Amino acid sequence: MDAEPKNTGGKVEPWGDITPDAARRLVSAAVHAFAERGYHATTTRDIASRAGMSPAALYIHYKTKEELLYQISKVGHERALTILERARDSEGTPAERLADAVRSFVRWHAEHHTTARVVQYELGALAEEHHAEVIAVRKATDGAVRSIIEDGVKAGVFDVPDVRGTSVAVLSLCIDVARWFNAGGRSTPDEVGDLYAGLVLRMVGAGGQR
């Protein structure tokens, strides 16, 4: 999706560009149901009830429960890719771009931790064709991070013996925020983003270059 999501009270709404309103409500309801009960334990009736609609109304917009999961996964992964590509293509040193990528990626996973848990951990429930499409986007996100790290290695500012493995480690570290982040906890999304940016720079041997 090319359209920018809506911003509500300073927080970007992931589903802001999904229309009509009923379809958007169903996606939001599905996210919370999948996060709470798991994809397989959630029924279409559960989702429709959360959206204040009848099961029959759900099928007008989404033919199957899997189609809802695909919509969530697709939008979520595209948002993640946009964040990382923006950092990759920005001005600045490799260290500045890597810190920006991590900071923004972590902040998104913290701010939208419920959505991110579904996006990142329910991939196995997607149909084969949909799974392949989402995996292609995931590979592109890995490529964006790997590109920044490669730039740092070429410039002699990163000490990374295994670029591919380090890229996977960086992404895994950031994604895991969705699993444990608590909106009522001690740290804000911005604070966690700053912390992780510093950790990753030290990981690549550039701790003093923020």
Describe this structure in words.
The protein is mainly α and 210 residues long. The protein is built from 10 helices and 2 strands; from the N terminus they run ββαααααααααα. The chain has a two-stranded antiparallel ribbon with strand order 1-2. α1 packs across α4, α4 crosses α6 and α7 crosses α8. The longest helix is centred in the last third of the chain and has 27 residues. The N terminus is likely disordered.
Number of strands: 2
Helix content: 55-70%
Count of runs of 4 or more consecutive helical residues: 10
* Proportion in β-strands: under 5%
SSE order in H/E notation? EEHHHHHHHHHH
Mean pLDDT: 89
Low-confidence segments: 1-10
Strand order of the biggest β-sheet: 1-2
Rough shape? elongated
Using only C-alpha atoms, the radius of gyration works out to: 18 Å
User: Structural class of the secondary structure composition?
Assistant: mainly alpha
The major beta sheet can be summarized as: 2 strands, antiparallel
What distance lies between the first and last C-alpha atoms, to the nearest angstrom?
32 Å
